[in-house]
Amino acid sequence: MADINRIMIEAWNTVLFDKFCRFKHLIADGLSKHSEAALSRCRFPLGAHVLDVGSGFGDCTLLIARSVGLSGSVVGVDCAANFVRAAETDCRDQRVSNAQFVQGDVQECDLRGPYDQAFSRFGTMFFADPDAAMRNVCGALKPGGSFMQIVWRRREDNPWLHEAELRVRDIVPVVSHDATDQVHCGPGPFSMADADSVSTMLQGAGFERISFERHDCDVCIGRDMDDAVDFAMSLGPAGEIIRLAGPDGEKYKPQVISALRDVLQQFRQSGGIWAPSSTWFVTASRPRA
Ligand SMILES: C[S@@+](CC[C@H](N)C(=O)[O-])C[C@H]1O[C@@H](n2cnc3c(N)ncnc32)[C@H](O)[C@@H]1O
Q1: What is the pLDDT along the chain (289 residues), one digit of tens a residue?
Q2: Ligand 1 neighbours (beta carbon < 6 A)
Q3: Whose CA is closest to atom 8 on ligand 1?
Q4: Element (H, E) at 7
Q5: Residue 85 Cα, ligand 1 centroid: separation in angstroms?
Q6: How far is CA 145 from CA 49, 72, 116, 135, 150, in A?
Q7: What is the DSSP string of 233-287?
Q8: How many structural domains compose the chain?
Q9: How far apart are CA 118 and CA 146, in angstroms?
Q10: CA dist 270 → 59, 99, 187, 222, 223 (Å)
Q11: For a pocket test of ligand 1, which of 84, 122, 136 has the largest count of ligand atoms closer than 8 A to its C-beta?
């Protein structure tokens, strides 16, 4: 477990960080379609102390910091030093003084609580030991404190990731995580898609009043077809298969590009490539006593 964890953290700090920087124009916009809806349901009142779990570039952390005002504060925690540094730079540039970014592994680090609320946008799906991470977040909340996380729902309702993965699997030999010494992102984006197992996990971690709200919306996955194919080949399960395949990933590139153009064609609209996507807004609270 310790080894897998180290590999995943290294992946976030290296290959995945580089790819997130390259596709920031799609990721920031696409992910914010879900977080705008989530944040409109989950108010962060003036004076609240909030934790942002797996804060990445910190855009949600900064939005929450503005909402809680100078009498409140937000801590963004992320395992990848590069994401923490990028978030700190944005925080300074935007002159936000009540947000702080900390490098740490949410499964085991001191989260510096207690907090009134915790939030996460797609930051909880990549833990080697999600039970430990959920216990740690619950323990960092004040009694009665709440946690909202946004996670991807099932693959079939996120066809821009799933159909791309199926096409690539047909062409490129799949290298399993056990069979490579390359870094990887562990359980992957759909690890929290099953509401039954996630609610059991949250209960086991000490949470109560657990609820799931489904949120569907189209997200932009490319300014044009070349951008969308490049994005699909770089990130998500399809991108991971291509990267882990090494020379085979390169060898089959022409077939992969043609298959992805074919499958992504259905999402072409006048303003770019827009695909349906689906998430859960999962809310839970730490018991009051
Ligand atoms: C998909 S990104 C989401 C980033 C950000 N919340 C957003 O919405 O843009 C997942 C983030 O979780 C972080 N992460 C993954 N495993 C982690 C762990 N064990 N502890 C802390 N952060 C972790 C990654 O470094 C990455 O920044």
Answers
A1: 668 788 888 889 998 999 899 899 898 888 899 999 999 988 899 999 999 999 999 999 999 999 999 999 999 999 999 999 999 999 999 999 999 999 999 999 999 999 999 999 999 999 999 999 999 999 999 999 999 999 999 999 999 889 888 988 888 777 787 777 776 666 788 999 999 999 999 999 999 999 999 999 999 999 999 999 989 888 877 888 888 878 887 887 888 889 999 999 999 998 899 999 999 999 999 999 7
A2: 12, 31, 54-57, 60, 77-80, 83, 105-107, 121-123, 126-127
A3: 121
A4: helix 2-13
A5: 13
A6: 10, 15, 5, 13, 17
A7: HHSHHHHHHHHHTTHHHHHTHHHHHHHHHHHHGGGEETTEEEEEEEEEEEEEE--
A8: 1
A9: 6
A10: 28, 39, 35, 12, 10
A11: 122
**Domain containing residue 214:** 2-285
Q: Looking at residue 176, what DSSP letter applies?
A: P
**Beta bridge mates, 148:** 119, 283
Burial of 162 (0-12, 13-18, 19+ CB in 10 A): middle
- The burial class, CB within 10 Å (0-12 / 13-18 / 19+), for 178 is exposed
Q: How far apart are CA 38 and CA 64, in angstroms?
A: 12
CATH number of the domain within which 161 lies: 3.40.50.150
